[in-house]
């Protein structure tokens, strides 16, 4: 008989996991309370970097089943979710997602579903990159300065180059001008 585990996650302390637990129970999964793992952590944190989830993975044995109410409980990033599910599959753990009809994401149908989700995520990311590039091109064509404003004026940069030639240290100049050592190095290389 496979052991059942439930993973329930919320992003902020003013939220709770009660609804997720009820959804899992209502779907017919009788998970022992000792095997219900709850935590408060951002979905942008990769699943395997979350303390509760990492401890859960250490407890798994081949044949175990993990139930989540929604795929985003495992993460917001489709690539992270996919790699997490692939890791669990390699360990012999099945993953059921209630929001996807309770499909076992490690089954053939589940892998296809994950493939479609990953393809859509990649498509959305590519569209975002295209829109960003188009916006930057429009701004550049309109004569707008792109990037961060320089932390040092042209006059300061010239003075820094002269002081470096006279042997001033990066640290001393960084402190004098209130910038990082790397800003001084960039100034020196640009000259």
Question: How does this structure look, described?
Answer:
The chain has helices at about 20-25, 50-60, 80-90, 110-140, 155-165, 170-175, 180-190; strands spanning about 5-10, 35-40, 65-70, 95, 105. It has about 190 residues and is α/β, with parallel strands linked by helices. It has two domains: about 5-105, Rossmann fold (3-Layer(aba) Sandwich), CATH 3.40.50; about 155-190. Strands 2-1-3-4-5 form a five-stranded mixed beta sheet, with helices on both faces. The model has no long low-confidence stretch (mean pLDDT about 90).
How many structural domains does the protein architecture include? 2
> In total, how many beta strands?
5
Low-confidence runs: none
CATH class wording of the largest domain: Alpha Beta
Features:
191 residues; alpha/beta; Rossmann fold; five-stranded mixed β-sheet; 50% helix
Blueprint (SSEs and pairs):
Elements: E1 4-10, H1 18-26, E2 36-40, H2 51-59, E3 65-68, H3 78-90, E4 94-97, E5 103-104, H4 108-141, H5 154-165, H6 170-177, H7 181-190
Parallel strand pairs: 1-2, 1-3, 3-4
Antiparallel strand pairs: 4-5
Helix pairs in contact: 6-7
Q: Can you summarize this structure?
A:
With 191 residues, the chain is of the alpha/beta class. The protein has helices spanning 18-26, 51-59, 78-90, 108-141, 154-165, 170-177, 181-190, and strands at residues 4-10, 36-40, 65-68, 94-97, 103-104.
């Amino acid at each position: 008989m496979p052991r059942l585990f439930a993973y329930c996650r919320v992003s902020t302390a003013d939220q709770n996991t009660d609804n997720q637990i009820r959804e899992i129970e209502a779907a017919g999964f009788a998970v022992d309370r000792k095997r219900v793992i709850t935590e408060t952590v951002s979905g942008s944190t990769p699943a395997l970097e979350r303390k509760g989830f990492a401890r859960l993975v250490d407890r798994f044995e081949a044949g175990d089943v993990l139930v989540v109410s929604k795929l985003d409980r495992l993460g917001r990033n489709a690539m992270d979710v996919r790699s997490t599910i692939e890791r669990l599959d390699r360990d012999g753990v099945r993953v059921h997602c209630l929001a996807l009809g309770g499909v076992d994401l490690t089954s053939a149908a589940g892998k296809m579903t994950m493939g479609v989700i990953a393809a859509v995520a990649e498509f959305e990311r590519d569209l975002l990159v295209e829109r960003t590039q188009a916006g930057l091109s429009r701004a550049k064509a309109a004569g707008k300065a792109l990037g961060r404003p320089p932390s040092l004026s042209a006059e300061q940069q010239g003075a820094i180059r002269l002081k470096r030639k006279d042997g001033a240290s990066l640290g001393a100049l960084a402190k004098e001008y209130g910038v990082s050592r790397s800003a001084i190095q960039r100034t020196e290389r640009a000259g």
